[in-house]
Design goal:
It is built from 3 helices and no strands. The protein is mainly alpha-helical. α2 runs antiparallel to α3. The structure holds ligand ISJ. Keywords: Isomerase.
Length: 134
């Protein structure tokens, strides 16, 4: 496969740059949503906000349309990303003292000095949990 037409190589190089930018943009987005999740868990707000999601989807569908991107694809993409964010927020809520109340229950008062919970795509590090081995 050494005979790659120059145009194909140029286009692939551009695609590689765009993919790298997407990864960086997503990483920045998850850093911001992580902080939102910590904040919401601390004050007892629920992990998901369907009204906000509805506004985001409508806005992104409009932007996609203007940009020549399939709005249905844009909606699927943002819905996929938001589902992952909510998963992280649920994990945070389950370990925060101000975790979202269950129906009919008042929110617990958050401890003012509660440390932020580190959440990556891997397992959640529970404060005071089992220390790592090694
Ligand atoms: C980030 C938030 O939490 C959730 C995730 C959202 C997102 O990833 O954009 C939007 C709404 C919420 O369901 C938020 O409430 O702003």
């Amino acid at each position: 496969m050494s005979d790659i037409p120059p145009d194909l190589a140029r286009l692939r190089s551009s695609i590689d740059n765009i993919d790298a930018a997407l990864v960086h943009l997503l990483a920045e987005r998850f850093k911001a949503t992580q902080q939102v999740g910590e904040l919401k868990a601390a004050v007892g707000l629920p992990p998901a906000d369907p009204a906000r999601e509805e506004r985001q989807i409508a806005r992104l569908r409009g932007l996609a349309h203007e940009a020549g991107l399939d709005p249905q694809f844009a909606e699927k993409f943002i819905t996929f990303v938001i589902a992952e964010v909510i998963r992280h927020h649920e994990a945070l809520a389950s370990v925060e003292p101000g975790a979202a109340p269950t129906a009919g229950e008042p929110a617990a008062t958050p401890a003012p000095s509660a440390p932020p919970v580190t959440c990556t795509t891997g397992p959640v590090d529970v404060p005071g949990g089992t220390p790592p081995r090694g």
